[in-house]
Amino acid sequence: MVAIQSEERDVGFVLQGLRHAIDKLELEFARFAAEFAQGEQWDDEGLNSAADWMRFNCHMTSSAAWRALQVGKHMEELPQSLEALSSGDIGYAHLTTIANTADKVTGFEESELLPLAREHSPGKFHYKVMHYRHARDSKAYNREQEQLVEESYLRLSTAEDGCLLINGVLDPARGGEVRGVLEPLARPSGAHDDRTRDQRMADAFYEQLTAGGPANVQVTATVETLRAMAGAAGGEMEFSLPLPSATVQRLACDSSVMRVLFAADSLPVDVGRSRRLVDGGLRKALAVRDKHCQWPGCERPASWCDGHHVVHWVDGGETNLENTVLLCKRHHRMVHEGGWKLIKVEGKIVSIAPTVTFGLPRGPD
Ligand SMILES: [Zn+2]
Ligand SMILES: [Zn+2]
Question: Does 133 have pLDDT greater than 80?
């Protein structure tokens, strides 16, 4: 036991030594990078900038190349910081933040930041430096944040399997607001919640965007699809690949969230709109009775829930208090698409896991 502990300490010591050596090499790299930027080699070789040349020839990301150039450019103004780096008091990661600040703040004094760098980890130091920059020049700080707003974007595209690909960047303030909305929604909820954090985030994102009111989508499905009859085609929805009948059933279950159209050549379903919709008085009564999602342990409030028909209206189930129950979107999906069953035991709802695994695994096994 003692031997293992001392071995662990040795490895830590080695790591520290290696990192210190790498940091000093980074500094040397930055010195030469700045010299290289002054020369013409990158231009002669047809590159747009020294950073571009380094990206291709030194196998670096553009931000790493850019940081090296910035450190190299300012290192002569930062003798105390270089001293602190060479004695191991601060790391290269601190130095890049100091050089970046020297680049952005006129009349910058390294002695104002060095104590903070010695005291904090690189991440925390970066955060503290943002306060410093705001204090030194709030207008410039604001301009910079506005620039980040302008550079924000969101790209939506469809993958080959029909999945929506989301790629984007939001400025810090709006990003913080979005996180503030999603984080509470992404906490584990209800019994059997074995989702990863990323999965919970995806669910929270969807739930927030589709909450409160009818989704502006139209689904077309035949009665055969709605009844999951053999040989039936899938349902259709704009921007999506054909939907499985279980999804059509869920969307049709609380028809107030969407409209279901029936193909012209299909048999009409003898159920009036008022018989399918969980809205008006019934929705209010459901909200009063259930208050929140009825999945065991789930507390998503009524306004976030769908009205689920215990016996689907397409199978003759009534749209009344006895036959409906509030379920949040995720639990509603677990019942329809996921094959979970809800039963009442002594007035309490119990969920029963499916006996077979539904859905296809995503990615390699
Ligand atoms: Zn349902
Ligand atoms: Zn729920």
Answer: yes
Q: Locate 219 and state its tokens.
A: 């689904």
| Closest ligand by atom to 335 CA | 1
pLDDT tens profile 79-132:
999 999 999 999 999 999 999 999 988 888 999 999 999 999 999 999 999 999
Nearest-ligand number for the alpha carbon of 331: 2
Q: How far is the CA of 350 from the centre of ligand 2 (A)?
A: 13
How long a stretch of residues is the chain?
Answer: 365
Q: Where are the beta strands (DSSP E) in 47-144?
A: none
Residue 258 CA to ligand 2 center (angstroms) comes to 20
Task: Please state the separation of Cα 364 from the chain's center in Å.
Answer: 22
Ligand 2 centroid vs 321 CA: distance in angstroms?
Answer: 18
Residues 359/246, Cβ–Cβ less than 8 Å: no
Q: What are the backbone angles phi and psi of residue 139, rounded to the nearest 5°? A: -65, -45
- Who surrounds ion ligand 2 at CB < 5 A? 293, 295, 298, 300, 328, 331
Task: Look at residues 176, 185, 190, 180 and name the one whose alpha carbon lies nearest to residue 205.
Answer: 185
